[in-house]
Design a protein that fits this description.
There is one protein chain. By secondary structure, the protein is α/β, with parallel strands linked by helices. It has three domains: 74 residues, Udp-n-acetylmuramoylalanyl-d-glutamate--2,6- Diaminopimelate Ligase, Chain: A, domain 1 (3-Layer(aba) Sandwich), CATH 3.40.1390.10; 226 residues, Mur-like, catalytic domain (UDP-N-acetylmuramoyl-L-alanine:D-glutamate ligase, 3-Layer(aba) Sandwich), CATH 3.40.1190.10; 83 residues, Mur ligase, C-terminal domain (Protein-Tyrosine Phosphatase, Chain A). Helix content is 35%, strand content 19%. It is built from 14 helices and 19 strands. The strands form six sheets. It has a six-stranded parallel sheet with strand order 8-9-7-10-11-12, sandwiched between helices. The longest helix is centred in the middle third of the chain and has 17 residues.
């Protein structure tokens, strides 16, 4: 079946699903196949549960069923991606192709995506990646959430392997690109830090080749170098340092990120008659989130959201995704930053704890995964950092931290 016909079916459906456990009446079911599952086995069940049609792989039992609602294709994942790309290409706002902002990075991409979406929502109807559905299945599903109300789409893209971003930009076709940062994560898949840079840089490459623009943290030397290597790449620059903004100290009474942002940041010329500082109080913990906040404000300003509205949107955002969350009890304050840790995010989280003023500090740290040959060395670095902080208690969990302890001289108690 050609993609135009598939898209016609999609436009007459109630959406797309890949999970029969959550299927709704009138949805299209795509039977995806992985190492430990085969959606083709559940295609007929999906129809029984109300799916309007089921897209399955050729040569399967479902394909041979004779049911007119079964659509057989060579590869269901390829068909899902082709449908998502076609839908993205054929969605228009006021006669112009829908604007898509592509976002990736080692750390902070989900938080930044949430902040960017909320800031833009002060002026536009925004469709954004739900949760962290940022892989080769999640990105197409996110694009297929775009509807006639959407005015801007914000699509998060994750990567564990060298060609992941390169594949995802070909599906999402972003007009703008934003990389939050580049750090040491998934080294097992990327091979090295240079491999991480090359993989994430595919977002810059795509935007550059297609005449788009990037949002560039001018305070980040690595990102600035990556942008400079792509001659002619147009960058919209932002940054806490660039703006002369201030990140205010955190303590037990004020554990969240607080910033003072010059009013001139929101003026057309970047200058105001008097340098007034605007206060921003977030519900995010960790000074590193100041960069994510600045990114969201920069995107909002570029698309005509006022600085006051951008600050309001950031201030109202409350994280609920195990990232930069704070839980308060009668006795303690728990900083929860427990999603997919890597050396860069772990170091930043520890820096945040070190900077906070508190009567007693405790660190509970679990192993970092997918670091390959660098795993022990990276765990040793984290262990040395945490031991230098003079914390009241440190609890380490996992074999990698055990190996790091054996390599540390003197060994931790």
């Amino acid at each position: 079946m050609d993609v135009a016909r598939l898209h016609e079916l999609f436009m007459n459906s109630k959406g797309v699903t890949t999970d029969t456990r959550t299927i709704s009446e009138g949805e299209m079911f795509f039977a995806l196949k992985g190492e430990n599952f085969d959606g083709n086995e559940y295609a007929l069940k999906a129809l029984e549960q109300g799916a309007c049609c089921a897209v399955v792989n050729e040569g399967t039992e479902a394909a041979a069923s004779g049911d007119s609602r079964i659509i057989a294709v060579p590869d269901t994942l390829d068909a899902l991606k082709a449908l998502a790309r076609y839908h993205r290409e054929n969605t228009f706002v006021d006669g112009k192709r829908l604007t898509v902002i592509g976002l990736t990075g080692t750390n902070g991409k989900t938080t930044t995506k949430e902040l960017v979406s909320r800031v833009l929502s002060m002026k536009y109807n925004v469709t954004a990646t739900r949760g962290n559905l940022n892989n080769d299945i999640g990105v197409p599903l996110s694009l297929l959430k775009i509807d006639e109300r959407t005015e801007i789409a914000v699509i998060e893209m994750g990567a564990n392997h060298p060609d992941d971003i390169e594949k995802l930009v070909k599906v999402s076709e972003p007009d703008y690109g934003l990389i939050t940062n580049v750090g040491k994560a998934h080294l097992l898949g990327f091979g090295s830090f240079e491999g991480v840079k090359a993989a994430k840089g595919k977002l810059y490459d795509y935007v550059h080749e297609h005449g788009g623009r990037i949002f560039l943290n001018a305070d980040d030397e690595v990102l600035c170098q990556m942008a400079a290597e792509r001659e002619g790449l147009e960058a919209i620059r932002y940054g806490v340092g660039l703006w002369d903004a201030m990140v205010l100290p955190s303590d037990a009474e004020h554990p969240f990120v607080r910033m003072a942002i010059p009013e001139s940041v929101g003026t057309a010329a970047g200058e105001a008659e008097a340098e007034t500082l605007l206060a921003l109080e977030s519900h995010l913990t960790g000074a590193y989130n100041a960069n994510n906040i600045a990114a969201a404000i920069a995107v909002g300003l570029h698309f005509g959201v006022s600085l006051d509205d951008a600050i309001q949107a950031v201030s109202e955002y409350i994280p609920a995704n195990n990232r930069s969350q704070i839980e308060k009890t009668e006795r303690n304050i728990l900083i929860e930053d427990a999603y997919n840790a890597d050396p860069t995010s772990m170091a930043a989280a520890l820096d945040n704890v070190a900077a906070m003023v508190a009567g007693m500090k405790v660190a509970l740290l679990g192993d970092m995964r997918e670091l390959g040959a660098e795993s022990v060395a990276e765990h040793v670095a984290v262990l040395r950092q945490v031991l230098s902080m003079g914390l009241d208690l440190v609890c380490l969990v996992g074999d990698e931290f055990r190996k790091a302890g054996d390599e540390t001289d003197p060994p931790p108690v």
